[in-house]
Fold this protein.
Amino acid sequence: MLKMKAACERCSAPLGLTDEAYICSYECTFCLVCADELHRECPNCQGNLLLRPSRNSSPTQVAKTGFKAKLEKILP
Ligand SMILES: [Zn+2]
Ligand SMILES: [Zn+2]
């Protein structure tokens, strides 16, 4: 699971779970402004910065839904 960092690593702008943010494959996290200024390249690892998928539900919610889906598969 992705670590959802709560702030930009460059300018410390707060990044909510549903805010747009850019991450590299090592999960370095940057805000939109910084990602643009960095030309979508991570300054730490030179990787591509990609738009982070937003997370609208908590991990416990997802676990519950997943468990329910499994149960529904087992039960007729
Ligand atoms: Zn920033
Ligand atoms: Zn990186």
